[in-house]
Amino acid sequence: MACWVPHTDRRAVPARPARELGARQVVAEPTRRLVLAAAAAGSLTLAGCTGIRALGPVPKPGADVVALERAIAAEELMVARYASVLSPLTGFGVTDKRSASAVKRAMAVVSVIHAEHEAHLAQLRSRLVLPARHATSRPRQSPTPAPLPAGWPSVLAALAAAETAASDRLIGWVPAAPPALAQLMASIAASEAAHVVLLGHHKAAR
Amino acid sequence: MSARAAKDIAALQAALAAEQAASYGYGIIGSHLAGRRFAAAAADCVAHERARDSLTVMLTARGAQPRPAAAAYQLPAPVRTQAAALSLAVMLERQVAAAYLGLVAVHDAALRTFAAHNMRYSAVRAARWSGKAETFPGLPASSLRRSGHTAR
């Protein structure tokens, strides 16, 4: 992509690809894997031969881990919501050819957005690395989305409302998140707001 | 000045530069559009000017001198048609979203929220102009982790 360089600065500032400019802004910080691995190693050393239980109950996860888990749960729900719309069992009572064509187009959009939510979920999950005892102590239930409303326009409206709510929630978590996670959350929130446009609810998207 | 304050100011200046460029760019975009599209471009231009003004105030409040806009900007490609104008609008919005990324990572919670909202506005405007959404607006691909990574 060409760079947007002021005329006056053209000689002083070498043109760089936008990707490189963006990459400089991304925060590099110790990975969660590293931090948790270090914490786990320390705990094991302290526990010695008596085993980990000698240290007492499993410590509560930090606020950043809680925020990440919330974001993951919210994204899982979005993926499940879109999957239910794409389910072959979903009929929407289409009877005429024109409606069928419109539904086909809308399904293509829904399919694209579903894939984007799966990508969001994968990125969020890749940032959550918990020691095994944490992972097994809190089993997660599969999210169950609310039943779909009747009629295709109502389904799209419900998806748009869910996207707006999810985007708002993520932005609310940005101030307290660690820098790199805040950047990911802000980016996902922006993507979810853009989905509202794709779903045909331009006026709802702010 | 503390390192934290210097980081805030650098991130604000980067966002300001992007908003200044976008404000300039929308002047060119609007000249190739008509009707509803012209009205949309005018509204987006005003939104960028407002963001630019807010950033200027934030910098001044922190005792920093906002960097002035350039007199003119080199376009990435000639804009002679409506299609070229639309693609410039999409490119500008994507650059603005990327420019706010640094501000999302600063310590100040209010600045983070301001930046996150503006990333969202840019992503929505880009989607309106292109009819497509980006999966990770503002984030360079190099910052994304490969999927298939499992936590153990």
Question: Which features does this protein show?
Answer:
heterodimer, A: 206 residues, Ferritin, B: 152 residues, mainly alpha, 1% strand, globular, disordered C terminus
Explain what the structure shows.
The complex is a heterodimer of chains A (206) and B (152). In chain A, 31% of the residues are buried. Chain A has a domain at 61-204: Ferritin (Up-down Bundle). Chain A has 206 residues and is an all-alpha fold. Chain A has helices at 18-25, 32-47, 63-86, 97-126, 132-137, 152-173, 179-198, and one strand spanning 5-6. Chain A is globular and about 65 Å long. Chain B is mainly alpha-helical. Chain B is 65% helix and 1% strand. Chain B has helices spanning 3-30, 35-61, 82-99, 101-104, 109-130, and one strand at residues 73-74. In chain B, helix 1 runs antiparallel to helix 2 (35-61) and helix 3 (82-99) runs antiparallel to helix 5. Chain B is globular, with a radius of gyration of 17 Å. The termini of chain B are far apart. Chains A and B meet through strand 1, helix 1, helix 4 and helix 7 of A and helix 1, strand 1, helix 3, helix 4 and helix 5 of B.
